């Protein structure tokens, strides 16, 4: 057959060359395929019809290439539909393929004409060449015309029983396409799928997993009789199939197998009797062990997606003590490309936050290079921060100090924050952390200064017992003039106000009317008032807060009170309504203290209104102003929540459509009976699709065998309980595929929560502590006054939009040595 | 994965796969969102959409497309952008792995990936894409199998197509007849040969005081196989204990490696990556005495044949710097007189940097050159420096170290100017160098045995190592 073909073609070839060699040689010199894409459209359309209708294959091919080129340029070429489709049965494979490409794109434009080609495909399904059969099925199932769905379903069924694994693979891949076309064919498709599940060829099994995930992800009970065989086949499937299969099997294990002994259920932690906590069965479920042992060798795959899939399997299924083994392979991925590095690090971050001890031994490999891309720097920083312990704090502190001079401002502020974390987590180094932070206040980089002030503030709040705590505030305050970053200024003002109360040890004799506050506080207020006009709103708000606090603490200090009154009168006519609102609120709060801040400003209508409200006494005002300032939790600094490895939402921080499909269910209370998974053919049988016996033992084919000696052969067939037996595999249509969550609904519900949060904010929290950059931006930009109060509470878990920064140098050298081959050793 | 879009240098789509399940506006909105994100990361003064886009997140989140929110993974190659959007949750690594494979297949088909080449062979690209990606699922990605289905463009095929005959119909064996997925059946070569390229990369960070903060050594074995039939190979190594955490091409029998540390495989035809590994630091110590961990660090330090001393002073609107490079006397390369080549030092200056001026000099340490010809030699030995305004990087290249004496010094002295009041140059200096004919790990190929075929193949092994050392200052 092949020989005939060859002979025939050779003959044709020589004939054609003889006929018109001279004429056609110019095609070489022109070599003009690129011109198809570049050429002007006008002269093309003129001869296109002629080319397509030509009897010469060369001209047809030429015409089709031009058509494809036009598709590429987004031209509408549906006018040629009929002419192109005519060629669908061409004996020339290349022409056919181009026709297929065209057909798949334009079938929905001309469904009637597309139907004309279907006969050809049905004929092709019986072709002797598996390539033709598979291609016919692929194109047939790809035609997006709903009326042919039943034909497609029948074709898939036929191909599912094909002798070539490649055709069966195409059949599996066609199942989701047909399902999307018309969901009513689900019963037939499920039937086909269960036939395919029995497939023993590693080539097609991965696609079967894809089909399963696409049309009936929740019908895991169908897998009972196949589970063990699938586990053993994982290593031999093609790499993309391995990913899909592992995903499916992991979900199955999570739903059907019993929990590993040392992974405790969440509710068990609360159990009162710890003596009883030990499990009755210390054994790892053998079926679970089978999956883990068959998956583990794939950690050595060259494909990063496979490595990640195995890691995900191990991370979510293995007993705690065995989880460690995926860490090194994952780290290997860091070396492959910057894109892979960025995604892998995000996954390592999850590991670092959940079980930091797994990463600590490799911490030096996560040090940040100045040539890393921005996102990589950020994630690495988060990982390093999660790994701080008293033991490594010294080293990490040294690292962080190096990062502070990085060119990437985001990294700078993160590093400064992490220095603060060092101080919290490792008391030994806290004094050097403090001095490092204080040094940074004098830095020439605004970002570093602001971050240092914020870090000092949260340190101060978290550890009020910090020695010399007040000195920190005082030294910060003394730098107030030199600091220009608005956030830092606002923060200092807040701290000065919050800690203005005298520490009580009157070292120097003070005027009686100043005893309640630190002596330097009024001076800061003076500076704040002085620069009030030129400060941005965020600073103004804090200046007002400071004024109110000083006013209530030292009512008898004439100058301070005058400064405060002056600040309020400035704020009253400020351009920003947030500032005006804040001033109005604070002045009514202070109405009962020392005649109020607004006294002497002349009464207007507002004051008349105020007279009717409740007037607080001084201690109450102090309570409102000073109490309830919880130290900020740093959890919110970096979003977390998504804790599943290998998902897109992990990277983007936003839930994707259908992501519930990839979320793993929690372990069941009790695994399903293992006899469900017993089958006749647990004994390994030779693959009929792999005739070459000599070549067995490739990849990890035989890995599964040594893991559980004996367990494979012994058990006889056990009849399965009726409910979940595979014979009941035809589901009720509609039930099999769960409902998608409407995304709009999802976001709507999210917003509700958010707005509730905002309403919950009481007046007491009104003077929001300046906390993070995003908070204050929100404060100043927010269009309605409510969000003033919500600062620091709601917006921190917002989306960390990637921030463009200036660091642009990517020292990614790709030096392919192009020197001549200098072989040291020749065989 | 929803499909694949290839953009040219100016952000216009030139080739895209069929987005069957999505409205036609979907790919357009992806392209728009991508171009938008890209333009945000580029400084305004850079006129061209440069290849370098270090700031663009490789995984973009696009909140509104015609099919709801989507992610878009993208890579860059040859001035082109390859985008892969996905509107459902999928591991981004899956997408990147596919893109990587697609690019390597394309590379193999077209030799070079660039706008011109893609335009020249767009029909091949379409066919390859169609075979590799079926409705968003990877289909056939092994290049050996693909070559049976889609013919690579070659002069011979051009002859055939000019004559109006498709080469496909006379492809000798029927596709998919090979029992081994990665190797096509019936391979015949006139000359049977196989080549192995072993390269190792040292990645290190030097602290200010010259100690090693972090170091890893990665190795990889590339293979080019031109063997007929179905050769069954067994490749064994000397010092194979240095392999740690290896990864293999699918053809390698894992169990065999676990038992004997040798690679037993039936290779695919053509170029492929046989193995990648990390070098375990403990295996590197060549001295016979057991080393403490500090000693281990020193041992690794000996792979860096140079010591860099740098002095950078930042002033107003600019600064000055002095780099001094001296040989490390105990280093492996100098001890064994191995040539160290292409030493490149680069320092990223601040984003406002306008220009730099420096002088490079070389002091051979007493031997001294004389005469005008020697002056030339001296200049060559001192290396050349260059200012790269696009990347704001200063680059100093010393083509070859020659055979330096202990007191040889290379110096680069200079100043730079900047528009920024207080410039912030990069906090470290990158040093790259190559040592051909040496592997850090000391791994050597012991022997290659072939069973199952009768002929004697020609075997070749090439080794080389590279290093990228970050010096903090």
TrEMBL record, chain A:
Keywords: Membrane, Protein transport, Transport. Residues 706-730 have a biased composition (Polar residues). SUPFAM superfamilies: ARM repeat. Residues 48-590 form the Clathrin/coatomer adaptor adaptin-like N-terminal domain. Residues 751-768, 808-821 have a biased composition (Acidic residues). It holds the Pfam family Adaptin_N. The keyword Transport applies. GO terms for biological process: intracellular protein transport; vesicle-mediated transport. GO terms for cellular component: AP-3 adaptor complex; endomembrane system. It comes from the Eukaryota. Residues 260-283, 663-692, 706-737, 751-827 are annotated as: Disordered. The keyword Coiled coil does not apply. InterPro entries: AP_beta (IPR026739), ARM-like (IPR011989), ARM-type_fold (IPR016024), Clathrin/coatomer_adapt-like_N (IPR002553). It is found in: Endomembrane system. Belongs to the adaptor complexes large subunit family. This is Clathrin/coatomer adaptor adaptin-like N-terminal domain-containing protein. It comes from Tulasnella calospora MUT 4182.
Automatic annotation (TrEMBL), chain B:
Coiled coil: none annotated. GO terms for cellular component: clathrin adaptor complex; endomembrane system. Residues 191-473 form the MHD domain. GO terms for biological process: intracellular protein transport; vesicle-mediated transport. Transmembrane segments: none annotated. It comes from the Eukaryota. Gene3D superfamilies: 3.30.450.60, Mu homology domain, subdomain B. InterPro entries: Adaptor_comp_med_subunit, AP2_Mu_C_sf, Clathrin_mu, Clathrin_mu_CS, Longin-like_dom_sf, MHD. CDD domains: AP-3_Mu3_Cterm (cd09252), AP3_Mu_N (cd14837). It is found in: Endomembrane system. Keywords: Membrane, Protein transport, Transport. Belongs to the adaptor complexes medium subunit family. This is MHD domain-containing protein. It comes from Tulasnella calospora MUT 4182.
